[in-house]
Each structure stands twice: as structure tokens, then as C-alpha cells.
Amino acid sequence: MKKEIVISYHDDNVRVALREDEKLVEFYVEQEENSQKVGNIYKGKVKDILPGMQAAFVDIGFSKNAFLYVGDILTNDRESNEEKIEKLLTPNQDILVQVTKEQMGTKGARITCNLTVPGRYLVLMPFNNYIGISRRIEDEYERNRLKSIAERIKHQHYGIIIRTVAEGIAEEKLHKDLDFLLGLWSNIEDNYKSYTSPSMVFSDLDLVGRALRDLFDKQVDYLYIDDKTQYNKIRNILSIKSPKLIDKVKLYTLKNPIFYQFGIDKELQKAFDRKIWLKSGGYLIIDQLEALTVIDVNTGKFVGSKNLEDTVIRTNIEAAAEICRQIRLRDLSGIIIIDFIDMPKDEHKELILRLLEEEMKKDHTKGQILGITQLGLVEITRKKIRKGIYNAMQQKCPTCNGNGRLMNQFTENMFLEDKIKNYVFLNPSKAYKIKANCPKLRFLTDKKCQLEEELNCHLILEEIKKEDGFEIMAFD
Fold first, then answer.
1. 1-36+207-265 has which CATH code?
2. Which segments constitute the S1 motif domain (predicted)?
3. Among candidates 389, 428, 394, 423, which has minimal Cα distance to 257?
4. Half-sphere CA count of 219, side-chain side, radius 13 A
5. According to the CATH classification, is domain 41-114 in 2.40.50.140?
6. What is the CA radius of gyration of the chain?
7. The model's pTM
């Protein structure tokens, strides 16, 4: 399987795409003013204790207080898991916590006291004293080898998790990674003692750094990035951490936007569609609610060539792979219900479940297939960590009061800028006339000088009254 990471880097936004066999399977975006908080560690102050919910609200400096459940306070040092939250916390108490879920809508961030500090090969667990090995390392000999190494290098009071990328890595490198993490933890402890609450005492890596740490491994064929400074930074990091991966990093130098060159923009826009067509002619309908996503499988234009049973199973097989890709791409979470086309035979149902399990092994976010209900529906749960692309790149429609969806202004501007650059790339000229509606014109007016310098051309802007108006034309 061919794997590629494509990174589009700008001062005000960073986009990371993971492709498998030239299909987009994962996408992440980070705006300058709205960077991800998951993984950051804070010195917080307990504000409210809710005995009826066995939870507390903690001020960590966000616009909304974070939510801490009693089960996320207890550690292995506790003798009992039945202690009440009012016995564990007091109002105005300082507490060290880590964000596990982003703040979304009216809900504050979810936090935990069971901290984890991730490195390249290992994850340090300061408050848990056990060894864990990634479930994606399946070779039993390799699992035993890594466990033996972990037992030798592990600090007696801390636990560690061995990450997938540690497969085949020598003990010396694992030891160095652990020493680095112990140094980070020591710094976190010092910050906690010296900072006042609420304060951030540890910041996780930015999006490029997380992509390098969490996505870039020996299974990836190439990593493409369009920014020379970040390209050099990545190579410098890899020269220390993973020298064998350096030659896989490529600097993208064409003037055409990198996402257009790889066809990612088109795939991204399809990810907002409710209907997803399959190659056979069948299709999926994806309806996403706040805590539930429903996916319906239909034969559509596919009528098969043998009999109904063959048509159904072939459609369901194709749908299973595409559903798993859409779950990763859209970052669907919570409860996912799939209504496959009815399959009377048990062996066909078992085949679909096995296919789903195999495809979900590729997913970096933990998910679980619960089986088929009495109504013939497949139930899946997937951990909710961050905003999916619906929430990160869309906003509620003010016209329909949230009953429909559309791209937010940031996303529209992002696509608009790439569209202009792509047109200039395909139609070289000294000058271009751009006609746009008022919102687009405001954005282009602010960007005009920067675009002219970057594209080495002159732009003439003109307003048109069409609601979705945009035209661009080259002239000498």
C-alpha cells in the first residue's frame, strides 16, 4: 500500500493530509488563532464540585470551565475506586490536568489527571506503573522483545506505552526517547510548582510536529511539504530521531498549490457531501448528529450481473472499505450506526464484520465494532478527541438556523486562494481581472498585495452582486 503525507504550510493555517493508495484518508487543519489544545497540560483551579454527577468543573484558562469526571482522578495509587469526588477535591484547589477532548460548542474541554507525555517511540505515564504495547504491533516475537526492553529501561515509579513506530527499533534509541520524556516530565513538575493557576505548564507539538511524530513512520513512502523553512526543520529533527526517513521528505516547489497538485482539494470538498458514490454505482448516505452518525448503504445504479445475493454482498464489501475511509477522513466519533443492505446469510455478515475490523486497524483513533443488532444494524463506537472537519471547517447556516451546513468563511477563503493560484498556474499572464461578491472581495482586498507579490502579476478586483459570485480572467 502506497502511503503519502502532504503538508500545506502557511502563516495563518496549516493543513496535513494522509493518503493511502492515492486516496485521502485523514485530514487535519490548524488555524493560527485556534490551535489544538488536546495533549496540553495545565495547572488548573477547581471551581465547582458536583456530587450528583461525580464530576467537577476546573478553570484551566479557557472560555468555558473544563469537565473532570471522578474516574479520571483516580490512579493506581488509590486503594479504592469507590471514593466520592467530594472527598478527592475541594473548591479552589490547584490540580494538574491534561486535555483529552477539545472544547466543542456549549461543552467545555474534557480533562484527566492521568497524564501521558508522548515521544517518538514511547509514551510516558507518570501516574501509572505498567507497560503497554501498541495493538498494531501484531508479531508476537517483536512484542516480547519490546516488552523485555521496556522492563529493563522503565523507571520504577512510571509506566510506559510502546508506540507502533517502535517496531524494530534498537534498545539504545528507546532508552534515549525515555530519557527525553523524563526530562520533559521534570520540567512539567517544575512549571507546576512555580506557575499560578490557571496556567499551561506543557504544550504539545504543533500540527507539523504531531504529523511527524504520529503519522510519519517507515510505512510512509513520502512526505511532501511546500515550505522550505519547515522542510529544513523536519530534516534536522529526523537527522537526530530517524535518519533513515530523511530521504522520504520532499520539498514541493511548483507554483500550483500543493493540494491542487495532489487532487486533495476535490476530495476534501466531497467529504462535506451527504451522498458518497461508490465505484460500482452504489452509494452511501451519511447523516451526522452531535453524538450519533447514521450511514445507509444503497445499491443505487449497481444492478449486478448474476443475482440479487451477489449484487448485495459486492455492494456491502465495497461500502465497508469506503465507510472506514469516511470515518477516518471526517473524524466521525461517538456512536456510528451502519445500515448495510440486508444479508440473510450469516457467513456474509461475518465477512463484512471482518472487513470492518481489518480496515479499522489502520485508524489512529481507537474504535470498537460492537456487532450486528437484532435489527441488522452494525454498531461502532469511536473515541471523540478533536473536532471533525464538519466542526473545524464549517459553521451553522444563519439562514436555516443550523438545519443545513455550509463551509465557514475561513474555509471558503482557503479554497478561494488556492483556486486563484491554480488558475494563474494554468493560465500564465501579467494581469488578471477578478470579479467577486462582497465577502470574497473583502478577503481579496486584504490579500491583494501578498498575492501579487507571490504570483508576480497584477490583480484588478471588481465587485459583482451574485450571491456565490466569483470570476477570474487573464488578460495582457
1. 3.30.420.60
2. 39-116
3. 423
4. 15
5. yes
6. 25
7. 0.79
